[in-house]
Amino acid sequence: MREITFGQALNEAHTVEMERDSRIIVFGENVSSNWREATKGLKDRFGRERVRDAPITETAFIGAGIGAAIAGFKPVVELMLVDFGLVAMDQILNQFAKTTYMSGGAVSVSMTLRVITGAGTSSGATHSESLHGLFAHMPGLKVVVPSNPYDAKGLLISSIRDPNPKVFMEHRLLYPVKGQVPKEPYEVPFGVANLVREGSDVTVVANSLMVQEAMKAADELKGSVSIEVIDPRTLVPLDEEAIVDSVKKTGRLVVVDEDYLNYGFSGEVVALVAEKALRSLVAHPIRVATPNIPLPFNSRLEKELLPSKEKIVSAVKKVIS
Amino acid sequence: MSVSDQKLTDFYRIMVRIRTFENAVRKLTKEGKIPTRFGLYTGQEAVAAGVSAHLKKMDQIGSTHRAIGHLIAKGCSLERLMAELMGKVTGFNRGKAGPFHIFDPSVGAIGANGIVGGSVPVTVGYALANQLKANKAVAVSYFGEGGSNQGGVQESLNLAACWQLPVVFICENSSPEVQRMLGHEIDYPQLSIDNVSTRAKSYDMPGSTHKGFDVIEVYKAAGRAIRRARAGKGPTLLEFKVHQLEGNLEGKVEANEKEKQWCPIELLRPKIPKKIDDQIRAEEATAVKNAIDFSIKSPEPSLEEAYKCVFTEAD
Questions:
Q1: Arithmetic mean of pLDDT, B90-100
Q2: pLDDT (average), residues B84-88
Q3: CATH 3.40.50.970 assigned to A3-180
Q4: Contact B132 A61 (CB under 8 A)
Q5: Residues 17-56, chain B: which have Cβ within 8 Å of A?
Q6: How far apart are the C-alpha atoms of B52 and B245, rounded to whole Å?
Q7: Is A316 on the interface with B (CB under 8 A)?
Q8: Which residue of B has its CA nearest to A102?
Q9: Per residue in A66-98, pLDDT tens?
Q10: CATH number of A194-320
Q11: B129 touches chain A (CB under 8 A)
C-alpha cells in the first residue's frame, strides 16, 4: 500500500468528504493557505464560499460554526493551536458542548473543531499544550486523538459524519509522520481502541504522539519485557473494555500522556483500572505525563518536563521490578 | 410608510400576550410552581413585536436570558413555553432548558442563552448558513447593552461585516437613564458611550438608535435593516432604548405613573378601539390560562431523562 503523511491523510479526508457532502464547510485561520497541509488546495477545489479564512477571532468563528451546524451544515472549523481555543471557552465549553443537552435534543451540533496541539518545538507555554483532558472533562464533547496517518484519515471521516460536537486533536509533530493509508474513504469507529502491539508483561496506554514514544520504548525493551501498547484513539467515548482486559492479562499498567499530569487522562485510566481491575494489578500503576508546570521555551527545560521514550522505559522497568 | 390598523392591532396583541404571560410567570414563581426567578421582558415588548412582524418562520433569532418576549413574538407555543419554565417533560426541551436555554427550532427560535452575549456568535452562524443556502432568510441577534461590551459580540460584528452576512444585530439598551443591572446597583458605568449603535461605524455597517418603547418606530427601523439583510447587503446594528418597568424589580405587574410614558402597551392603547382592546385582553388571558393548565397537568420528566440527550444518536 502507498505511504502518505499524517497531514496528507487529513487533507484526503477533507477532500473526499467535501466531494460527498455539500453541507461540509471549512473555516478558520489561514485555511486557504498553501502552507496549511491539512486544508491545502481545498479552496481551489471547493471555492471560497465553502472554504473561508476567518479573522483571528476564535470566539466569533467557533460560534459561527456552531450556528451553521445547528442550521444544518457540517462545519469543520480549525483552531490553529489548541492554546488559542482558551480565548473562546464560552463558545467551546458552554455553547458547543452543552447545546444538545440543554435543548433536550431539539437541536444537534454536528461540527468538528480541528485543533493542532503539542509540545516539543520550543514554542513556549501558550503554543505547546495538549489539553485533551480539559475537553474530555466537559460533558457533551467527543474527543479524538489520532496517532498515525491511517487513523487520522479514518477518524476524521468518522468525525465529520458523526452528528455531535467533536474536538479533533492533531499533534503537530505527527504531521510529517508517514504511514500506509488506503486511497478510498473509510471510517475508523469511535470508542474502539487500537491494540498497537500485543504483549504479556505490561500494559502501556498512550495517546497521540505518545503512542510513537511508547512503541520506541517497547522496541528498546524487546526481548526483556513484553509490552502491550494500547491507543484508545478517542478519549470520549473511551474503550474501557480494551484497557481493563489488557490489564487483567498483564497485571501492570503504565499510562503515557503529554497532557498535564493532574486531573487528566492518565489519572482517568488509573482510576478506571482501580475500579474495574484492581485485584489484577501486581504492581502500582505509573503515570508518565507532563507535570503541572507551564512549558518553558528553552528546549532542554522543555524536554525535562515532557514524557519521552526514556521515561517510559524507566517506568516499565519500575513496574516490572 | 404608514402602518395599517390591522398591523397596530397585531402589535398590540403580541405585546399584551407577552405581558400577560410574564405576569403569570411572576405569580407562578411566587407560588413556587416555577422554581427560579429570572429576567423578564416587561417594558421591552415593543422591540420583539416590531422586529418579529418582519420575520418569517425560516428566519432565526438568537436570544438572551431575558428571552420570553423574543420567543413569544417569534411564534412559540405558550403551552410548551410555560411547561418548560415549570420543568415539565412537555416543555420545548423536556424540562432541561428552563428560562435560559429554550430552543424551539420549529419556529426558528434557536435559542435563549444563559451567557451574556453568548448567543451572538452562534446567531452569526445561522446567518452564514442562510448565505450559503442562498435562501434569503435572515438571522436576528438580540443582546443587551451589557452584552454589547462582550468581546464575542464585537468579534461577531466584525465577522458578519467581513463576510457580509444576512444578520441584524439588535441591542436592547435598558440603561437609558440610569446605569443599572437587574437587581444590582452599579457604581461605575457599563458603557463609555451613550449610544451602542455608534459602534457600527467601527465595522462599516449601518447603525442607528431608536425609541424601543414605540412599536411603530421599532417596526420601521427593523424593516429597513431586515430588508437590507434579505437583499444580501449585509448586517446592521440597531439599538433600541427601553425601560425595564419597575414591576420587573418589585414584582408589580403594571407600570407605575412615572413609567407609563415608557410602557409600549400604554403608548399604543389610544390607537386601539376599546372593544378590540377588551377582546384581545380576554383572549390572551384565556390563552395564558390554558398554557398554565396544560403545564400543571403535564408530567415531570422521568429520572432516566437526566441521562438522555448528552449526545445525538447517529441516524
A1: 96
A2: 98
A3: yes
A4: no
A5: none
A6: 22
A7: no
A8: B97
A9: 999 999 999 999 999 999 999 999 999 999 999
A10: 3.40.50.920
A11: yes
